[in-house]
Amino acid sequence: MSEALANLLNETRQFPPPAELAANANVTVDAYAEAAGDRLAFWAEQAGRLAWAKQWDQVLDWSNPPFAKWFVGGRLNVAYNCLDRHVEAGLGDRVAIHWEGEPGDTRTITYADLHRMTCQAANALTELGVTAGDRVAIYLPMVPEAAVAMLACARIGATHSVVFGGFSADALTNRIQDATAKVVITADGGYRRGKPSALKPTVDEAVANCPSVEHVLVVRRTGEEVAWTAKDLWWHQTVEQASTEHAAEPFDAEHPLFILYTSGTTARPKGILHTTGGYLTQVSYTAHAVFDLKPETDVYWCTADIGWVTGHSYIVYGPLANGATQVMYEGTPDTPHKGRFWEIVDKYQVSILYTAPTLIRTMMKWGDDIPAGFDLSSLRLLGSVGEPINPEAWMWYRQHVGGGELPVVDTWWQTETGAIMISPLPGVTETKPGSAMTPLPGIVADVVDDQGQSVPNGGGGYLVLREPWPSMLRTIWGDDNRFVETYWSRFEGMYFAGDGAKKDDDGHIWLLGRVDDVMLVSGHNISTTEVESALVSHPSVAEAAVVGATDPTTGQAIVAFAIPRGTTDTAGEAGEKLIAELRNHVAKTLGPIAKPRQILLVAELPKTRSGKIMRRLLRDVAENRSLGDVTTLQDSSVMELISSGMGGGKSDED
Ligand code: ATP
Ligand code: MG
Question: What pLDDT is recorded for position 31?
Fold first, then answer.
């Protein structure tokens, strides 16, 4: 971005928190002033939410930036904090996980159960020679054993590296090798789209090239036939036979807890390293504050996969540190029918739902009548994470899932930040559809221009974090230089998030997508997000992706790919008419500068495996280049469809 990012979208709707939620909220407006008054004292107070075996001597050591140490000298055990202390407090019978398999089989796991299972896994791993500091790779479907495996590693001080179960053998190999993992925990497979989907063959292929791996623990989930190697051990023959007694030893607050490789949307995966005390403090606090989590009464459901940071922080560590009851679902949202999510909400009386814009837009595409067919009255709070949420998708979520009343918290954060950073507080903030609003108490975020100067209200630029935060990444595994280079070199003394953002007239923050995706049209920097949001604000559009394609006159020109809503007629002339209408709609909403040169109506968009739109590939299509690497795509056939539509089909150019 050579100049400030244009601020084109003007959204004026605003919604106060429901009175009852506000009156009983876990966190009130005072938290902002308190944290601003003494940020470190504020975080020290939040660290008091945890049980420490030894109190820290210093809240933050920032003497060697950007290498931070939080709660210096403190000692604690993460698994003890997530399990033992709840059981000791008499909550052993509380349900920790209502697990729902895709085929409809279920398991109810209490805190006492989860504690026992974790102790067994900790004993089994110890038996296999895993000690504190060793790395363990976890490649599992969404089964309770995934949480158990992570907690067991934490319990014995082993560093886990969870690899999303949809990744290829190559991706798994790279990650195992980079972390030199000693043990891999996997399963025969899991259920996806109505049938067993094998995992073990991928592990076999990977482990053959990973000499560091001594043992592979295999959970039996599908019961399908699997090949067996000398390194393999069944989970049920080892872990489930191990002693249920295990004393959790405390570790240093800066002991490595996990490595998580970023999804690789943009470049070679980076092993993001998180440590113990600061991480657990911030995930515990944010789950309490942002979700207003009431462990005695709420049923919480985060639909993310455990392979992403959202699954780490808001399925495993945040909710369990709070003693929450949650739902965990194995499969896809349309198996066996498109109402599966809503059926689960109704069945378990889910009160807090945390999901991603991609899912919300998919639900919009499927039609309003689907959620309308279920009783969603147990819900009281909705959350979103992963991408900018278009205002219209936000409104749809509030209207069709939230009955037109529930607060929606749009939470901005990253694998690197470890926990939620910018978000409304549900009992405090008057939310605006599409805005993540303000940094949480204790977080100092800003939007700056090219020179690192804070932009005024109404301006756009780069999102930065001005002060260290407890759950910040500590480094990139094995590559301190890349850590400094990637995040701390763009602006002096600030963390560079890589995302574009703007401040509205009230100073509220709107995320505008990745900096790499910003378009330069006739000298104006235009965010893909704003144009996409304008398209989605048209009643016939469910989802849109926008890219800048090289253009002889304007430098870059806007090319849009739009998915029509369920019942829209796009055949023949109707399609041409809709395209013309959409171009005018964008011009009217954002101004003529943002009018797309070309719009294609498509059935699907290329997405990463975490469900994010992959604009890089669409840029290739828009510039008639041969396709780049499609291996991280959720569904690579999508690209053939889109490219074939590009030549003729329903596009419009004038
Ligand atoms: P990679 O870094 O490998 O390309 P990734 O950035 O998609 O992958 P994550 O760490 O899971 O991996 O995602 C964080 C990014 O997701 C943020 O930097 C931002 O671009 C986007 N994001 C997350 N939450 C929000 C949100 N509420 N609003 C806007 N964007 C969001
Ligand atoms: Mg990223």
Answer: 98
pLDDT value at residue 32: 98
pLDDT at residue 626, rounded to an integer: 63
The class that CATH gives domain 522-645 is alpha beta
Find where tokens 């455990």 sit.
Answer: 306
Tokens of 48: 């008091």
Q: How many CA atoms lie within 13 A of 456 on its CB side?
A: 0
Ligand closest to 415 (CA) is 1
Is the CB of 272 inside a 6 Å radius of any atom of ligand 1? no
Rounded Cα distance between 564 and 577, Å, is: 13
- Ligand 1 binding pocket includes 532 (Cβ within 6 Å): no
Ligand having the closest approach to the CA of 409: 1
| Contact (Cβ atoms closer than 8 angstroms) between residue 232 and residue 184 | no
Q: Is the predicted pLDDT of residue 511 greater than 50, yes or no? A: yes
What CATH number does domain 70-384 carry, 3.40.50.12780, 3.40.50.720, 3.90.245.10, 3.30.980.10? 3.40.50.12780
At 654 the pLDDT is: 32
HSE-up of residue 238 (Cα within 13 Å, Cβ side): 19
Q: Give the residue extent of every domain in the chain.
A: 70-384, 522-645
The two tokens of residue 482 are: 């890349």
pTM: 0.95
**DSSP bridge pairs for 562:** 544, 601
Instruction: Find out whether the beta carbon of 514 lies less than 6 Å from any atom of ligand 1.
Output: yes
Any ligand 1 atom below 6 A from CB of 309:
yes
Provide CB contacts within 8 A for 258, sequence distance 6+. Answer: 150, 153, 159, 160, 161, 162, 273, 274, 312
**Cα distance between residue 452 and residue 455, in whole Å:** 9
Mutate which of 511, 512, 528, 607 to test ligand 1's pocket (most atoms within 8 Å of Cβ)?
A: 511
Quickly list DSSP for 544-589.
EEEEEEEETTTEEEEEEEEEEPTT---SHHHHHHHHHHHHHHHHHH
